[in-house]
Design a protein that fits this description.
Elements (H helix, E strand, L loop, with lengths): L2 H10 L4 E7 L12 E16 L2 E6 L3 E4 L5 E18 L2
Antiparallel strand pairs: 1-5, 2-3, 2-4, 2-5
Length: 91
Amino acid sequence: MTEDEFRKLLAEQGYEEIRENKYPPDSDGEPHTHEFSALLMVLEGEFILAREDGSETFLVGQTCDVPAGTVHTERTTQLGARVLAGIKSAD
């Protein structure tokens, strides 16, 4: 998926805000939740999303979602990551 296609998808699905986040190489965040849902696309690097049921690595052009209230940790490899995130208020 391209960045333009992803931005169009976010608009079609009602995501209210778009954020770009940069994660440094070898980052390992703390487990947390958000009060909003997020749909993410990796723009650069490798992004690892760890949830209670396991971890998954996402590469450039791949997307993942994090529903509101999901316990998760954001991690990266030695490449770091730049991620575009659509934010939607919880229903």
